[in-house]
Amino acid sequence: MDPHTHRSLTKPPLPRRSDRRPDAPEVIRHWLATAHPTPERAYLEWSEQGVALLPLGRRFNAIRIPGRLIHAAAGSDAPDQVSRMLRDTLDGPVIHDHLSVGPAYYALGPHGRHIAWPGGNDTPLLSAGVYLGVPALERTTPPGTFWITPARYRNDLCRHDPVHRLINTGRRELRAIETASRDDDANTSPPEQS
Q1: Residue 1's pLDDT band (boundaries 50, 70, 90)?
Q2: Cα(21)–Cα(16) distance, rounded to whole angstroms?
Q3: Measured by CB atoms within 10 angstroms of the end CB, which terminus of the chain is less buried, N or C?
Q4: What span, in angstroms and rounded, lies between the C-alpha atoms of 41 and 38?
Q5: CA-CA distance, 180 to 165, in Å (whole number)?
């Protein structure tokens, strides 16, 4: 047997996601645009408005996370700190938008019919039938909708387990802040008069 044959039959271990080399921006743009039934429409919206409305459920879904949970988990609302925390924690693309109720983050995740998402009503999994404003790749700062952590390659998606852990961390931090605030209020209230 040829010694090179044995090597070709053995598959190398899969690289960690963060070890994968980035795709060229035009490859990522094409992957995102083909989420739309008419990809040319996505390209037009990016060039004219900087944001394209793309249907979810075809290439990716999104988990909407209120800014207060992300900021509590990061211990800050400073964009550079939030970006670093999201990059390290989620290892996938996240979009930032400012809604009328405050900031929201959208973690792009896997799509499919039978995706189970254990999040609550305030952190819904958005899928088929929902359109998401997806910024042009170069929009990485405010104002408006922008990538807080941009997509790095085709099929670059956040896994659900890290997203769920991040949300739970944010919830724990918010509870701790609220408890500390109640304790401070109780300690600073005037004594009762008899």
Answers
A1: very low
A2: 11
A3: C
A4: 6
A5: 23
Q: Reduce the DSSP state of residue 29 to 3 states and report it.
A: helix
Q: How far apart are CA 92 and CA 89, in angstroms?
A: 9
Residues 90, 82 contacting (CB under 8 angstroms): no
State both tokens at 12: 């190398």
- 16-33 tens-digit pLDDT: 455 568 899 999 999 999
Task: Identify whether the C-beta of residue 89 lies closer than 8 Å to the C-beta of residue 149.
Answer: no
At CA 84, angle to CA 99 and CA 172, rounded to 5? 70
Q: Which residue has the tokens 């792009």?
A: 108
Instruction: Indicate whether 186 pLDDT > 70.
Output: no
Give the closest residue to 175 by CA, choosing from 97, 80, 68, 43.
Answer: 68
152-166: b (≥16 Cβ within 10 Å) or e: beeebbbebebbeeb
pLDDT digits (tens, 9 = 90+) for 93-137: 999 998 877 899 999 999 987 778 888 899 999 999 999 999 999
Closest CA to 82 of 99, 61, 67: 67
Beta bridge partners of 105: 65, 96
Give the residue-averaged pLDDT of 79-92: 94
* Dist CA 35 CA 16 (whole Å): 25
**Residue 173 C-alpha from the chain's centroid:** 19
